Amino acid sequence: LAFIAYPKAVTMMPFPTVWAVLFFVMLLLLGLDSQFVEVEGQITSLVDLYPSFLRKGYRREIFIAIICSISYLLGLTMVTKGGMYVFQLFDYYAASGVCLLWVAFFECTAVAWVYGADNFYDAVEDMIGYRPNPWMKWSWSYITPTLCMGCFVFSLVKYKPLTYNKVYEYPDGAIGLGWT
């Protein structure tokens, strides 16, 4: 939509070049903002995990530089001659619904059964100031994990190995890397 429909619509507006530049600058800034949020989420969680080590001196800043450098090097593999193959591998396995379903299942299980649904329910009440609907405990404990696991199983049943342009089949090592 952003690269097909909108540019076509912009050509029909007065001063189409100005609007096109503004639109694509906006897309660039949205992408950068998404990257900032992603990196900040990683950094904050790791700094909170190891505060005695990462909150001394400039260690947090050095840690951010290391994380950004590693991310840059991983992203650099996607702009090489075979980068489209690497991008497809990341897109198919890492950013797919299967991975997110797996993570959501274990997050709900950890919250409801390890931390405890009642403890979480009380913590949410403390944060928002009122008791949430009681069905939320059922959702955290049973409904969401069941739906996530069911969708995950169905996606495994319908699984087809990754191919590129319906011609190139990825080797077993690449598929194994994708699953890990």
Automatic annotation (TrEMBL):
Subcellular location: Membrane
Transmembrane region(s): 12-32, 62-80, 92-115, 135-157
Alphabetically ordered keywords of this record: Membrane, Metal-binding, Sodium, Transmembrane, Transmembrane helix, Transport
Pfam families in alphabetical order: SNF (PF00209)
InterPro entries documented for this protein: Na/ntran_symport (IPR000175), SNS_sf (IPR037272)
Residues that hold Na(+) according to the record: L30, D33, S34
Protein name listed in UniProt: Taurine transporter
Gene Ontology molecular functions: gamma-aminobutyric acid:sodium:chloride symporter activity; metal ion binding; taurine:sodium symporter activity
Membrane topology value: Multi-pass membrane protein
Gene Ontology cellular-component terms listed: cell projection; plasma membrane
